[in-house]
Amino acid sequence: MPDFSSLLGLDQSSLTWWQMMLRATIVYVAAIAMVRLGEKRFLGKNTAFDVILGIVLGSVVSRAITGGSPFAPIIVAGFTLVALHWLFAFLSFRFDRFGTLVKGSSRTLVEDGEIRWDEMRSGHVSREDLLGALRRNGSVEGPERVREARLERNGEVSVLRMQSEPRVVTIDVQEGIQTVRVEWAS
To answer: How far apart are CA 55 and CA 51, in angstroms?
Structure first.
């Protein structure tokens, strides 16, 4: 019966197809454990902070499959990256300044119907990009109907529409009873 080291090809310079298959299986299970520890956060649509972990983690653990680096240290490195990500996320939650340092900050692109061009330039958002985001996320055609639009830390544009004012449509008086019909614009 071969030992664990020879099954994984840890002491060989080249790997067989079944050693790579076994390594892939172990790395896959370890990666699932890493994702569970990372609470799947970095796989969602989040900040660059989260995306970086996904890219680096994939790059690191792939080396364990192909034999480009020693197997066990690569798995340990993967868990270390997830632990660091968790620690940074925890510190970002507890300390706003640390969160801003690691994740960046949001920018107000539209305020009370007015485009803030300085923030648009700083965020590299064109007028057409803004208008598309307003249509997609706020169901409005232009900034004049927007109370606030923010470029969030994850790159999405959040939109708060202005509250519309009621408009009196009809006033009717019959038999001493006054009826007022009011319409709210959407």
So the answer is: 6
Q: Which H or E run includes 174?
A: strand 166-174
- How many Å apart are CA 41 and CA 59, to the nearest integer? 18
Q: Within a 10 A sphere around the Cβ of 74, how many other Cβ atoms?
A: 20
Q: Is 110 helix (H, G, I), strand (E, B) or coil?
A: strand
Pick from 63, 56, 28, 30: nearest CA to 42: 56
Q: Which tokens go with 172?
A: 């009717």
Q: Assess whether pLDDT exceeds 70 at residue 142.
A: yes
In DSSP terms, 151 is beta-bridged to 107, 157
pLDDT tens-digit profile of 25-43?
888 888 877 766 665 455 5
pTM higher than the cut 0.90: no
For residue 30, give every residue at least 6 positions away whose Cβ sits within 8 Å of its Cβ, in sequence order, or none: 61, 75, 78, 79
Q: Does the pLDDT of residue 49 top 90, yes or no?
A: no
* β-strands 177-184, 166-174 pairing: antiparallel
d(CA 52, CA 91): 17
CA-to-CA separations, 3 to 6, 10, 20, in angstroms, rounded: 6, 10, 16
- Measured from the Cβ of residue 114, the count of other Cβ atoms closer than 10 Å reads 10
Helix (H/G/I), strand (E/B), else coil: 122: helix
Q: Which pLDDT does position 40 carry in this prediction?
A: 47
